[in-house]
Write the structure tokens for this entry.
Amino acid sequence: MYFATAGIDVSPLVPPLVAMGISFFTSMAGVSGAFLLLPFQMSFLGFTNPSVSSTNQLFNIVAIPSGVYRYLREGRMVWPLTWVVILGTLPGVFLGAWLRVAYLPDPRQFKLFAALVLGYIGLRMVRDLLRRGPAGTSKAEAEKRFQALVREYRQKDAHQRDSGGGALPAVRVLRFDASRIAYEFYGETFDVSTPGIFALSLVVGVVGGVYGIGGGSIVAPFFVSIYGLPVYTVAGAALMGTFVTSVAGVTFYQAIAPFYPGMSVAPDWLLGLLFGLGGMIGMYLGARCQKFVPAKAIKWMLAVVIAYTAGSYVLAFFR
């Protein structure tokens, strides 16, 4: 099947199957599959023009809503943090999209940029594997901690609740203004700088706009390592921010496409939807199978794939 915008000829079964396979493993490791989907499109499908970035964001739009719904149901969406992330990443995404089209249309130069982003993600992954950080910094440990809090809450108030367990506590906002964001969740209080979150989100938005990812896989580790926020309270905000900025990125790429008639800028809608469908299925299956697969084994495998891909792009640039 020929995908006109992407300029590639591939079986319609390949995109969803590959996205399903990537998302299946990455979801078990607690990271997004979008950052690996882009190298696959460039290296294996030969899809290297600027529209590959917007097509990658289209994958996020289709695949993410189920995850957002989960965090909403569990009352884990920190809306003040979410809004600041969105307000910071949105202008960054627009700027990044423009930089991609104006200054990085050459596949060779863009692959070097992609190698830097992949290298950063890979280094963080290896560092987390080799060094045991403070409690709550590991996604798996943080999720266990959250589930432990849920069990303690239910046991503590069991005599006041029916057999269904009742409603679980949601995030309670204590302060939200131009200087600070403060919230409480299961008896724990967290306080962060609003300008700091905004500035970080702006930088991440630029990188995400150029590369074609919403930035959740980049911004969430900073929330944990710099601001000391547990993953189980920031994952929802990062995911929602990724979804909204991906929508904005796809819209912006589509809007500026007429101004670059000699270049493929708009997303390949059919290809992106096929990737997104596979990603949705892969994330669901990965979540179901996560308890049967050692997280470290998956992360080491991903780290090797990332290192190989980034290294090959760097070598290709200097040849």
Notes: The chain has twelve helices and five strands. The beta strands are 2-3, 8-9, 172-176, 180-185, 188-193. Residues 4 and 168 are 49 Å apart (CA to CA). The chain has a mean pLDDT of 83.
